[in-house]
Amino acid sequence: MKESKYAPIYRQIVQDIQRGFYKTNAILPSENELSQQFGTSRETIRKALNLLAQNGYIQKIKGKGSVVLDVKKMSFPVSGLVSFKELQQSLGRDTKTIVYDFGLIHPDELLQQQLQIKPDAEVWKVIRSREIQGERIILDRDFLLKDYVPLLTKEICEQSIYEYLERELKLQISFAKKEIVVEPCTDEDRSYLDIEGFDHVVVVKNYVYLEDASLFQYTESRHRLDKFRFVDFARRAHR
């Protein structure tokens, strides 16, 4: 698939913000100035700026321009259902996935409750850390029902499970129910994350459903406290 014209412009501005070329509360150059700088149309620049705003890098203020926001913490979408591969493209940072544990298991009592399955069901268990800018700051614990995912490999888990499910298995992933809690660090967290002295992690629990409303995946995504802000977009309904 051919890359959109605005994507490399978006990534370049993200890098400039992260390196401090554009400081917090600074105003980005105007659309005209950016179009001249990148040798492209204002419409392409506008699309790049809109993506920057969506991902929490800038705030567009009428009459003032595009104001750079504090990006010390990475924005993690609460309402969206995205893979880490899709997220890393918006982060614009060096990333790596490390698979520590992979294989088929029979569920314990807790996992039976989470996935609403019987003890003899087979479940893919995948434990992966997400390294961003050289630090392991996310630990993903994925559990997928073999009934829906008959084949899975470690190599797929090192790339994108969702890409494989949708492109190869033609599964229609539809929606997820999410729960966000703060929990004490486990021994597993300390083994597979660069905890840096923190005693707790932010845990996003996902119950993921297919288009026919079948629950096929339960995931715990465990995040280091200081590295993320969880963002959502809400519009007030006028009565």
UniProtKB/TrEMBL annotation:
Residues 3-71 form the HTH gntR-type domain. Pfam families: GntR, UTRA. Gene3D superfamilies: Chorismate lyase-like, Winged helix-like DNA-binding domain superfamily/Winged helix DNA-binding domain. SUPFAM superfamilies: Chorismate lyase-like, Winged helix' DNA-binding domain. SMART domains: HTH_GNTR (SM00345), UTRA (SM00866). GO terms for molecular function: DNA binding; DNA-binding transcription factor activity. One of its GO terms (biological process) is negative regulation of DNA-templated transcription. CDD domains: WHTH_GntR (cd07377). Signal peptide: none annotated. Keywords: DNA-binding, Repressor, Transcription, Transcription regulation. This is Trehalose operon repressor. It comes from Bacillus oleivorans.
